[in-house]
Amino acid sequence: MREVSFGQYYPSDSFVHKCDPRTKLLFLIAYIVAVFLAKNFYALGACAVVFVMVAALSGVPFRSLLRSVKAVLFLLIFTALLNLFFHSGETVLFSWWIVKITKEAVYFTVFFAARLFLLVLGSAILTLTTTPVALTDGIESLLKPLKWIRFPVHELALIMSIALRFIPILTDETGRIMNAQKARGADFETGGLIKRVKAIVPILIPLLISAFRRADELGDAMDARCYSGSKVRTKYKKLKYTWRDLLAALLIAALIAGIVLLRVYTAAII
């Protein structure tokens, strides 16, 4: 888990880093919509091309982006196997007892895995190129119209920012606790499933205690600085759109338009 990059910020001075956080949030939402609109490999390939372009402009090493996939690797493999063995089709490639693999199932499995892979990588770019403070300001600005119905926009944005900031902190804390338990003779790598689950209990208890202690210390620090929520608060950094945000909007608009055209005029592969 220490190598999982989701929730961590990669400092740089790239094109994507300089974009407005609101633009990056809207770009990610539109990108997710585009990936789900893709119904064939041509459209999915267009999404992959856009992702490669954004990744190149972000300056984030591709190795750091791949680390984010580790968080959902088990889910990716599990769902891929389910689709491979239970998706129906006409062209049978392999059959044994109750197991039947068809050509359509292979196509669907590869397509689904590629779609999930692009979704995770696209979300990772947002957290790697945007600080938690900027992300909070962007979310609060986008949800500002909800204040008219007395929705706690600032509090929601603050909660999400703290949650993202605590992901790498709790990950490092878990690693330290595991090393301490291993030094006392704990074994987390051998034995059956039940034994491994029991071995996790000595990790969860101190981890929960540490999380509550950090939350209490954070609350005290906010009280000491006279934090009062969204009441009469000013911004140290004002958000403003630039020409970079216009280019990002044009790029994602072109992607969605291209996928819609491909969906209409190209026969679906799956």
Summarize the model shown.
This protein is mainly alpha-helical and 270 residues long. 66% of the residues lie in helices and 3% in strands.
Structure description:
This protein is mainly alpha-helical and 270 residues long. The chain has two domains: 1-138 and 238-270, no CATH class; 166-229. Helix content is 66%, strand content 3%. It has helices at 21-37, 41-58, 62-67, 73-86, 103-129, 132-142, 153-183, 193-224, 243-265; strands at residues 92-96, 99-102. It has a two-stranded antiparallel ribbon. The model has no long low-confidence stretch (mean pLDDT 81).
In terms of structural class, how would the helical and strand content be classed? mainly alpha
For the largest beta sheet, what order do the strands appear in spatially? 1-2
| Main sheet attributes: strand count, strand direction, barrel closure | 2 strands, antiparallel
Please, what is the average pLDDT?
A: 81
Radius of gyration: 23 Å
| Overall 3D shape | flat
- Distance, first to last CA: 34 Å
Low-confidence stretches: none
What percentage of amino acids are in beta strands? Answer: under 5%
Q: What order do the helices and strands follow?
A: HHHHEEHHHHH
Task: Say how many strands there are.
Answer: 2
Number of helices, counting only DSSP H or I runs of 4 residues or more: 9
Total number of distinct structural domains: 2
The share of residues in helices is 55-70%
